[in-house]
Design goal:
By secondary structure, this protein is mostly helical. The protein has helices at 3-31, 34-60, 70-115, 145-149.
């Protein structure tokens, strides 16, 4: 197997592992198994960093993708589509859990404030993100450049 194929296969293996972790994380969120979620977080972080590293290598040397035949390129495109779908599902599941927790916390704070006779809006140093911007990457981050090279 050529170095190009090895590099692409390493990238695909990392993507597969990250997809599996994100799918498992979605299930844990649905079950509200927060202890296992904590344990999964470090694995997800390691895989995310490895994915980013391998994607960066491919972005720096897109000619590697020229060594793939049409069927391999089609498989990689399909893998990217699966990855994006699982990533979107994962983000939405985590965001839904976060929003749910936030609403509970706001209700608790409102009840405490009411019992103590505190009126007015609570002060906060942080403004919550809202809308689609919550799910977007920081400006300047390009995730689809490898996909475009295919």
């Amino acid at each position: 197997m050529s170095t190009a194929h090895t590099q692409v296969n390493d990238f695909i293996d990392t993507m597969d592992n990250l997809i599996a972790v994100m799918k498992h994380e979605i299930e844990l969120v649905k079950k509200r198994d927060y202890e296992d979620l904590k344990r999964m977080q470090s694995k997800k972080n390691r895989l995310g960093l490895a994915y980013d590293e391998k994607q960066t290598l491919l972005q720096q040397n897109p000619k590697v993708l020229d060594h793939l035949n049409d069927a391999e390129k089609a498989d990689l495109r399909e893998k990217f589509a699966d990855f994006r779908n699982v990533l979107a599902d994962n983000m939405l599941a985590i965001r839904a859990a976060h929003d749910s927790t936030e609403k509970v916390m706001q209700a608790v704070v409102a009840t405490i404030r009411k019992r103590r006779g505190i009126t007015g809006e609570p002060r906060s140093a942080l403004k919550p993100r809202s809308g689609y911007a919550v799910y977007t990457a920081p400006t300047g981050v390009e995730y689809n450049s490898v996909n475009r090279a295919l």
